[in-house]
């Protein structure tokens, strides 16, 4: 009976008025699908009801957020309309733990939904997470490459202007945040052109190389060496020459010993990873 009524609703879906204001009955029909028993999905969707969270379990919204990508995968992207409102409700939940859970899985959801739905429904949520608490931003940061590689090239370039903001954290002692940024930038080198790398990623890399925490600096040496490698392979060779000149000026001739030490470590990494032909390195 449940399946028959479900199919009946789906069959009648095409008869819905084109008017943008749906009646409660039409709104209910928009949440109907034929993959799982409808009662089960309705029960899941009701978990975001604030009154439930207060009377049943304060953690219920977090559990709901945790399992949402699995529910989306089960229903398929053709039934995303059933989950969209619930996802947006969870993404603006007052508890940061709920938003953090979604931030850690947004890249997985993007794979399930495909590029069109991602651009329309997930990118605005992603942008909101970028401005959230550090506990939420770290979820986005840890999978930054995984998410950005799924976007169209033009949309991806828009985030170049925001990468600098990851250097600023609520707590300056949160060095793991900066270490993760350096790790992600290494992966992001493959997604951007030589000019974008030189104009936008280079200043961030140099800033990370001068970080107060050695763990951040060590990852940053690897980042700079990979940057040298990427730019040396570009058809426009002036970028790598300009970069090397800046390395000499900024670190080799630095009045602080730590800066000169940084230059030596970067040279070591470039040499070990064969990032440059030896004659050019010399």
Would you mind describing this structure in some detail?
With 282 residues, this protein is mainly α. The protein has 2 domains: 29-151, Leucine-rich Repeat Variant, CATH 1.25.10; 176-281. The chain is 68% helix and 0% strand. It has helices at residues 2-12, 24-29, 38-45, 50-55, 60-75, 84-91, 96-130, 134-142, 144-148, 153-157, 175-188, 194-209, 214-232, 238-252, 257-272, 278-281. Helix 5 (60-75) crosses helix 7, helix 8 runs parallel beside helix 11 (175-188) and helix 13 (214-232) packs across helix 15. The longest helix has 35 residues, at 96-130.
Descriptors:
16 helices, 68% helix, ARM-type_fold, Leucine-rich Repeat Variant, PP4R1 phosphatase, 282 residues
Q: Per DSSP, what share of the residues sits in E-state strands of 2 or more residues?
A: under 5%
- Could you say how many structural domains there are in total? 2
Give the helix level as a range of percent.
Answer: 55-70%
Strand runs, count: 0
The tally of helices reads 16
Secondary-structure class: mainly alpha
SSE order, as H and E? HHHHHHHHHHHHHHHH
The CATH architecture classification of the largest domain is Alpha Horseshoe
Task: Give the uncertain stretches in residue-range form.
Answer: 3-21
| Shape label | elongated
- The CATH homologous superfamily of the largest domain: Leucine-rich Repeat Variant
Mean pLDDT: 86
| Biggest pleated-sheet summary | none
CATH C-level label of the largest domain:
Mainly Alpha
> In CATH terms, what is the fold-level topology of the largest domain?
Leucine-rich Repeat Variant
Radius of gyration over C-alpha positions, nearest whole angstrom? 24 Å
Distance between the termini: 78 Å
């Amino acid at each position: 009976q449940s399946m028959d009524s479900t199919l009946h609703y789906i069959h009648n879906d095409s008869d819905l008025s084109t008017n943008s204001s749906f009646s409660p009955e039409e709104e209910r029909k928009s949440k109907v699908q034929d993959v799982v028993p409808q009662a089960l999905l309705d029960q899941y969707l009701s978990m975001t009801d604030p009154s439930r969270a207060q009377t049943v379990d304060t953690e219920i919204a977090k559990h709901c957020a945790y399992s949402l990508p699995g529910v989306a995968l089960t229903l398929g992207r053709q039934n995303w309309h059933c989950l969209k409102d619930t996802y947006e409700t969870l993404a603006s939940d007052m508890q940061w733990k709920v938003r953090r859970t979604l931030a850690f899985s947004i890249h997985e959801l993007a794979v399930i939904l495909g590029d069109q739905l991602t651009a329309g429904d997930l990118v605005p949520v992603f942008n909101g997470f970028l401005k959230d608490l550090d506990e939420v931003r770290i979820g986005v940061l840890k999978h930054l490459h995984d998410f950005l590689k799924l976007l169209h090239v033009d949309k991806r370039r828009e985030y170049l202007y925001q990468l600098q903001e990851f250097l600023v954290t609520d707590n300056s002692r949160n060095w793991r945040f900066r270490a993760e940024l350096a790790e992600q930038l290494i992966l992001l080198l493959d997604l951007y052109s030589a000019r974008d790398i030189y104009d936008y990623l280079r200043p961030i890399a140099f800033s990370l190389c001068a970080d107060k925490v050695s763990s951040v600096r060590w990852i940053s040496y690897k980042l700079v060496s990979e940057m040298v490698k990427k730019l040396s392979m570009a058809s426009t060779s002036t970028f790598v020459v300009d970069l090397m000149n800046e390395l000499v000026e900024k670190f080799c001739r630095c009045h602080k010993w730590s800066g000169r030490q940084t230059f030596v470590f970067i040279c070591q990494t470039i040499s070990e990873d064969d990032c440059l032909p030896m004659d050019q390195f010399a």
